[in-house]
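Q: Could you fold this chain for me?
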Amino acid sequence: MHQDTKERLFPNLTIGVMGSAGGKIAAEAMKTCYKLGQEIGRRGYVLVTGACPGLPHEAVKGAKSMNGFVVGISPALNFRQHIMEYHSPSRGYDVIIYTGSGLMGREIENIRSCDVVVFAGGRSGTLGEFAIAYDESKVIGVLEGTGGITEHLEEIIQMVRKSTGSIVVYDKDPVSLLNKLEKIYEEKIIPNYQTLLLNYDPDGILDDNGSIWSKVA
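A: Sure. Below is the predicted structure, expressed as structure tokens.
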């Protein structure tokens, strides 16, 4: 389902995995996230995490076991701070993006860098990421049976009573969950990307007089 590199007019499918980076994490939840990562890697998708330990890093290890491509969005300013202050993992990442935004600040980059986001386990930080994803109409997968706030997300959505356009699907099996997310991506997201590219040069438009860039500089 991923595009051929020679014909790729927009980035490959990026799947975020957000969840518990600490606390008591059940061994079964760790295994499930590892399997999720394996499946993301096997399908040739890009895995995005907050470059943190715990459940997201299990997904990283799973993806790398299948030679997957992994991007970490770090809260740190640089590699030194990433290691020395945040005690975050370095193994398994093809790219680490240093936001310098701190744990809460980098959540926006985490979510916006993904086409779809999977939530597993989680505490207050994960709840914040879910709030951003839900409010910004993201396609969301909830990996059931992993504990934490994911066990309460359906209830939270009902309490919020806000229609955002976000699509939320649930499954305890990572393969089945990815199948659901893949189907939504094919039916909802790809057609939108293709429409945006109609009558548009995918190599961008050269701004001869600098008028575009002066507006964003």
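A (continued): The mean pLDDT is 92.
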